[in-house]
Design a protein that fits this description.
11 helices; 82% helix; mainly alpha; 0% strand; single chain
Length: 215
């Protein structure tokens, strides 16, 4: 009987803890939602924390309970989409097995990814300009993608692994290629490339990627 009484006494505390956890999660989500909108309409240096927490409907103190700085908030936005990007790249080796058509279809999915996350594309580009710490993160993630593609069966990316001079050269080639692909797909998603030229970009990018994978 004493055990039952103890469990009953614990229920209110557990319920309150669950409520506070849900409330904290909802507050964090509201801040992230507001930040995505603010970053979509203002350059990163001009976006103000005050604009974000006011739009989220929270106090300054509440904002800083969740995020130590504007940069930490930007990292959180990037972290939301990074797993989806990694999963997309993990599907590239299989797409490459279908030749040029498969790679071009993969590129179209990459463009669609940028369209879906259009609020983040300019933010990520600006973070690389203004935040050294973020540039380091992008480099780390690019290196991880190259390793994953090599481990996934793409021989040309596998040859980019290791400490030899040849591996270093291959890694630079891979990094430049991935950067060009990301930049072009982001530009297409933003509508900066005309509908007439988009198929040409996709075809040329697909051919370059296929050739790199075959080399």
């Amino acid at each position: 009987m004493s055990n039952l009484c103890a469990e009953k006494r614990l229920l209110p505390a557990n319920s309150r803890a669950a409520y506070l956890l849900r409330r904290r999660s909802a507050t964090r989500a509201a801040i992230l939602l507001a930040a995505r909108d603010v970053f979509a309409h203002a350059n990163y240096p001009d976006a103000r924390v005050e604009d974000i927490f006011r739009q989220a409907g929270v106090s300054r103190a509440t904002f800083y309970m969740h995020f130590a700085s504007k940069l930490e908030l930007a990292f959180a936005i990037y972290d939301e989409i990074a797993p989806q990007s990694a999963a997309l790249f993990a599907s590239l080796p299989r797409a490459a097995q279908h030749g040029l058509g498969g790679v071009e279809a993969w590129l179209r999915r990459f463009v669609a990814f940028h369209v879906e996350h259009r609020y983040a594309t300019p933010l990520i580009a600006q973070l690389q300009l203004f935040e050294k710490e973020f540039r380091g993160r992008i480099l780390e993630d690019t290196e991880a993608l190259i390793n994953a593609l090599g481990d996934g069966g793409c021989e040309s990316f596998r040859r980019a692994q290791g400490q030899s001079e040849a591996a270093a050269q291959q890694r630079v080639r891979a990094r430049l290629l991935l950067n060009r692909i990301a930049a072009a797909c982001a530009a297409m998603a933003r509508g900066e490339i005309s509908a007439t030229e988009t198929p040409l970009y996709l075809d040329l990018l697909a051919r370059e990627l296929v050739q790199f994978i075959k080399d």
